[in-house]
Design goal:
This protein is mainly α. The protein has helices at residues 23-42, 49-60, 66-72, 77-89, 111-131, 137-160; strands spanning 93-97, 105-109. It is 60% helix and 6% strand. A two-stranded antiparallel sheet has the order 1-2.
Length: 161
């Protein structure tokens, strides 16, 4: 069942628009700063931002094939292949052709990949907790609820297009 797109709000007015007061601008700035901090904290592991995301997705089981991982990471097949080449060269992941369907390439974390992936939640929790300094648990829950509503609106808009 497709959720209908909610009626747009009228909070912004083109005649008085200030980008630095835009929710989108603020979310993008926060995401950029958090990503930079995560990458800085993962520097000792040798993982880049582009590498830790798919590594963690494999670790938690949200993808197990090249195609699933590419979709999950919003990458085209060529970009995913190049990324996996680098991750394979680092000894983090192995590609295994499916015995049932040769077109399918399964992915498996190496022991080194599993060890690196285990450290990712520690970094993510530390960075996110630092950025939530001064928030109460209730404010944190409210923030997540509001962000989920924005995400739901975005998904409804996208599914209608």
């Amino acid at each position: 069942m497709v959720t209908p797109t909610p009626v747009p709000a009228e909070f912004y007015d083109p005649a008085h628009y200030k980008p630095d007061e835009s929710v989108g601008y603020l979310m993008r700035r926060i995401l950029t700063m958090v990503s930079a901090e995560v990458e800085r904290d993962l520097l000792p592991t040798g993982l880049t931002n582009a590498q830790w995301v798919p590594l963690f997705k494999l670790y938690v089981g949200s993808a197990s094939t090249v195609a699933e991982l590419a979709r999950d990471c919003n990458l085209d097949a060529g970009a995913m292949t190049r990324l996996l080449d680098r991750m394979e060269a680092k000894g983090l992941v192995k590609r295994l052709r499916s015995s049932e369907d040769r077109r399918v390439v399964n992915l498996e974390l190496t022991p080194e990949g599993k060890a690196a992936a285990k450290r990712i939640p520690v970094v993510l929790c530390g960075v996110q907790n630092a950025h939530l300094a001064g928030f109460t648990r209730e404010e944190w829950q409210t923030l997540k609820s509001l962000l989920r509503r924005i995400l739901g609106n975005a998904q409804a808009i996208q599914s209608e297009r």
